[in-house]
Design goal:
Helix content is 33%, strand content 19%. By secondary structure, the protein is α/β, with parallel strands linked by helices. The chain folds into two domains: 265 residues, Alkaline Phosphatase, subunit A (3-Layer(aba) Sandwich), CATH 3.40.720; 106 residues, Phosphopentomutase (Alpha-Beta Plaits), CATH 3.30.70. The longest helix has 20 residues. It is globular, with a radius of gyration of 20 Å. The N and C termini lie close together (10 Å).
Length: 389
């Protein structure tokens, strides 16, 4: 019997371009493979579960008898961002991409936002989150004008110094922007990007908050909650789903805090789903083209895996996968359209089980739904019968 799933998302840890990567300018992207080639990657515990044995994996040494379930998963939806990836995992297909703004946001959006804030905005263009602070941070401190910027993703980001704009005021601005950005301008996320420090040493704080679109239909988290089970969000999970289907949540300051909080919840008597997002792979290293940092981050997570497994009950299943790629070795700083790796482990699961390539992230959600005995999702095929003892 399985009564709890621990589902950990390694945010942006892709494993090679999808067949349609050319549509997204992502030919050559392979987050894990390119990091392993350029820097090296010592991840023995994930390899032990089968990471290197996944179909299409390169530059990692296979093991002869993997102890887990392993495979790679393709994205069906039209995108390569956090929201679309997580939504697909829980059964929402997004054939239409969210709007993006390579030339900044139109006047009809910025006028309404400036009217609410009472100040003109700075920026209004695609930019690196750290570079735009160096460019506009001093002027922001002198004027109090918020910095608004976007990226290749569907995001409206607001940066403000915590000593100039209190956190709650920044969150209020973000909620106002979320209310403005609807219909044709319904971006996937409005993101609060608070920072501190001085010119030349600005740094973003852990008080980031995402204001996401509401999921458009019933999905896995809703039906688990309706069944009276726990749905515990660790990290930015609560933000990604706008709180829908969540019974309890905690935000985290970094990956290791995310692992700590996950283990704390594992040690409690909950039943259902513990759903964790470890965002530093994406935010701190992928978008910063920091190959060494990304590699060390993967190794740090890998070093915690035995601790996670040792805290599992016999009735637990652990699942690990990503939501898109963000190859730090590529010239740009944006997400990449990639397959994602999938690993699973538990006393009730078979060992050395190769799932090959799955067609949609929703296969994972459909499998979790079947494990927990909830109604089927709109998309995805469960692979439970292939992996259960």
């Amino acid at each position: 019997m399985i009564d709890r799933v621990i589902w950990i998302i390694l945010d942006s840890v892709g494993m090679g371009e999808l067949p349609d990567a050319d549509r997204f300018n992502d030919i050559g992207s392979n987050t894990i493979g390119n990091i392993a080639k350029q820097y090296g990657l010592d991840v023995p515990n994930m390899r032990k579960l089968g990471l290197a044995n996944i179909e299409g994996m390169v530059n990692l040494e296979k093991v002869s008898e993997p102890e887990g379930v392993y495979g790679r998963v393709a994205e069906l939806s039209n995108g390569k961002d956090t929201t679309i990836g997580h939504w697909e995992m829980v059964g929402i297909h997004s054939p239409k991409a969210f709007p993006t703004y390579p030339n900044g946001f139109p006047k009809e959006v910025t006028d309404k936002f400036e009217e609410y804030v009472g100040k003109k905005i700075l920026g209004n263009k695609p930019a690196s989150g750290t570079a735009i602070l160096e460019e506009l941070g001093k002027e922001h401190i002198e004027t109090g004008r918020p910095i608004v910027y976007t990226s290749a993703d569907s995001v409206f980001q607001i940066a403000a110094h915590e000593d100039i704009v209190p956190i709650e005021k920044l969150y209020d601005m973000c909620q106002a922007a979320r209310d403005i950005l609807v219909e044709e301008h319904a971006v996937a996320r409005v993101i609060a990007r608070p920072f501190k420090g001085e010119l030349g040493s600005f740094y973003r704080t852990a008080n980031r908050r995402d204001f996401s679109l509401n999921p458009p239909e019933e999905m896995l988290l809703d039906v688990i909650k309706e069944q009276g089970l726990d749905v515990i969000g660790v990290g930015k999970i609560e933000d990604i789903f706008s709180g829908k289907g969540i019974t309890e949540a905690i935000h985290t300051k970094d990956n290791m805090d995310g692992v700590d909080q996950t283990i704390k919840y594992m040690q409690q008597n909950n039943k259902g789903l513990i759903f964790t997002n470890l965002v530093e792979f994406d935010s701190a290293w992928g978008h910063r083209n920091n190959v060494e940092g990304y590699a060390k981050g993967l190794e740090a997570f890998d070093s915690r895996l035995p601790e996670i497994i040792s805290n599992m009950k016999d009735t637990d299943v652990l699942m690990i996968n990503a939501d898109h790629g963000c190859d730090p070795t590529m010239p740009g700083t944006d997400h990449s359209r990639e397959y994602v790796p999938f690993l699973a482990y538990g006393k009730s699961l078979k060992s050395n089980t190769d799932l090959k390539t799955r067609k949609t992230f929703a296969d994972i959600g459909q499998t979790i739904g079947e494990i927990l005995g909830v109604k089927k999702l709109n998309i995805g095929e469960s692979f439970l019968e292939n992996i259960k003892k």
